[in-house]
Amino acid sequence: MGRYFAIRIGRAMLTIVLVVTFAFVVLRLSGDPSLMILGPEAPPEVLAAFRKAWGLDDPIWMQYLDYFGAIAKGELGRSMRDGRPAIQLVLERIPATLALTLPAFAFKVALGIPAGIYAALHRGSAIDRAVMTAAVAGFTVPSFVLALLLVLVFAVQLGWLPSGGQDSWRHAILPIATLSLGGAAVLARFTRSAMLEVLGQPYIRTASAKGVPWRKVVTSHALPNAAIPTVTILGFMVGTLIAGAVVVESVFSWPGVGRLLVVAVANRDLAVVQCILLLVALTMVTSNLIVDFLYGFLDPRLRMKGAHA
Q1: How far apart are CA 112 and CA 2, in angstroms?
Q2: CA distances from 249 to 142, 143, 172, 206, 268 (A)
């Protein structure tokens, strides 16, 4: 067991390093922050002084080593726009993002899993076809398209809800709905597939043949064994609580981490972008690591495979 967990932790740390390295290199190859912040009309000596002050005139390998050295000290840099610590800017936006993503996650689970289970237990019925049609539609429609459709219907045509902002709880309804529907569709599809696979296993038929009530067969045998694929999807969704809000927050002008990331990328505010990407990577890796640990406890066979991976 110890080797299984050690391998998973090692892979998680390597993933974080690779994500941060990729972001670091891409950001520095995508444009000169001094031109974005000061403007191309700024005098050359001003641009040179700005680059020197922020270490942008150093070789990229030296900037890379300095960046990881700062992370080791718990320093994530300062915003080039206002000089404030990048982590402070990000932490200020996290409550707004969680105000959308946490309710959306709860709605995904409450809608998607029961729908998938019901569709699997009534395979081939009209309800099953309706659920899967809605799931495919929700899965394939991009979030920004869904967001715009909801705004068009409920804000523009019907006038029931505001189209953006954060002034009241009513402003959160459309963003939460946008985040919920796509995730619920994914959960419904995977839950249905997992349930159908389990329901086709010999031990399910054996339990039914022995006279075990169907409700008990489903609750005691089918649902627990169908849980692992669903746990995988749930872990991924937890990991994308912050990253998944980027598009939605931009469409609805919601002042969260996602909108901050879009603005920081547009302004080449390197420290802020890197801080957000590091936070996203930590969230995703941690959630996947927790899922791996749950697998190890729930199924000893996975520990044995992982120990030899």
Answers
A1: 35
A2: 14, 11, 10, 50, 19
DSSP string, 190-229: HHHHHHHHHHTSHHHHHHHHTT--HHHHIIIIIHHHTHHH
pLDDT tens-digit series, residues 20-74: 888 888 877 777 777 777 777 778 888 788 788 777 777 888 888 888 888 877 7
Count other C-beta atoms under 10 Å from residue 296's C-beta: 19
CA distance 179 to 22: 27
Q: How many domains does the chain have?
A: 1
Residue 219 lies in a domain: yes
| Residues with Cβ within 8 Å of residue 213, at least 6 apart in sequence | none
Domain of 200?
86-266
Query: Is this prediction's pTM over 0.85?
Result: no
Give the pLDDT confidence of 210-253 residue by residue, as tens digits: 777 777 877 777 777 777 778 778 877 877 777 778 888 888 88
Cα–Cα dist 277/15, whole Å = 12
3-state secondary structure of 85: strand
CB under 8 Å to 262, separation ≥6 — which residues? 246, 249, 250
Helix intervals (H) in the chain:
2-29, 33-38, 44-53, 60-72, 86-121, 126-140, 143-150, 173-199, 202-209, 214-217, 223-225, 227-239, 246-251, 257-266, 270-298, 300-307
Nearest to 136 by CA among 192, 189, 64: 189
How distant, in Å, are the alpha carbons of 30, 32, 37, 164, 279 from that of 273? Answer: 13, 14, 14, 24, 10
Which positions ≥6 away from 221 have C-beta within 8 Å?
198, 203, 204, 207
Residue 280 included in any domain: no
For 226, the token pair is 């169908």
**In this structure, is residue 51 part of a structural domain?**
no
